[in-house]
Automatic annotation (TrEMBL):
GO terms for molecular function: ribonuclease P RNA binding. Keywords: Nucleus, Phosphoprotein, tRNA processing. One of its GO terms (cellular component) is ribonuclease P complex. Component of ribonuclease P, a ribonucleoprotein complex that generates mature tRNA molecules by cleaving their 5'-ends. It holds the Pfam family RNase_P-MRP_p29. This is Ribonuclease P protein subunit p29. Coiled coil: none annotated. Belongs to the eukaryotic/archaeal RNase P protein component 1 family. The keyword tRNA processing applies. The gene is Pop4. GO terms for biological process: rRNA processing; tRNA 5'-leader removal. It comes from the Eukaryota. It comes from Neodrepanis coruscans (wattled asity). It is found in: Nucleus, Nucleolus. The keyword DNA damage does not apply.
Length: 202
């Protein structure tokens, strides 16, 4: 290696900086040299974010095959679900901020229509099919089109919502549910706007 003069070294550094930082003008490079402090910019490569794989749940067919929503015959007893009904009543009282005698009925009606009904005791009061009228029991499962109800006789009844009117009583307040206007999953009702009055063709 041959020793370089100060001018040659300065020219080398100047050309090196110009190649390394082409976006900088000569005046800026000269200013950096006079300060005797050179910081070379580094442009790191952008890391590509790996997309997280979403865990897939069971399909409706797989849920049916696995019988995830089936209630075993030995569990189909009314007495087993009475504690669930007591929990549901407390849940409704909290939801309505206490069921007081001066509470407006339409306020309670609006709350009940959007509430979770698992554990509620309902009665079929009107129906196009006379065999459904009078069925009373605790709602164990709610689907888009049907209620599964356990009666006091320990019988599991599947009652369609369509063309049926259900009554629901709690602390002296009676509410009516028009099933034809209620064809929704339980999780979808919280965002649904209901009309407090309904009709049914009987």
């Amino acid at each position: 290696l041959q020793p370089q003069s100060s001018e040659e070294a300065k020219a080398f550094v100047h050309s090196f900086l110009k190649r390394s930082m082409p976006q900088m003008k000569g005046e800026a490079i000269q200013d950096m040299l006079t300060r005797k402090a050179v910081v070379l910019e580094h442009y790191p490569q952008k890391k590509t974010k790996q997309k997280r794989k979403k865990t897939k749940g069971f399909t409706a067919k797989q849920r049916r095959e696995l019988r995830l929503f089936e209630i075993e015959p030995e569990q189909q007893r009314y007495a087993i679900f009475l504690p669930l009904h007591e929990l549901w009543k407390q849940y409704i009282r909290d939801l309505c901020h206490g069921l007081k005698p001066d509470t407006q009925p339409h306020v309670i009606q609006g709350k009940l229509l959007k509430a979770d009904l698992h554990g509620a005791i309902v009665t079929v009061t009107k129906s196009k099919c006379p065999s459904y009228v009078g069925i009373t029991g605790i709602i164990l499962q709610e689907f888009k089109h049907v209620f599964k109800i356990i009666t006091k006789e320990d019988k599991l009844k599947v009652v369609p919502k369509l063309n049926n009117v259900f009554s629901l009583e709690i602390d002296g307040f009676i509410s009516y549910i028009f099933g034809s206007k209620f064809l929704l999953r339980a999780s979808e009702r919280s965002a649904k706007k209901f009309k407090l009055k309904g009709t049914i063709d009987l």
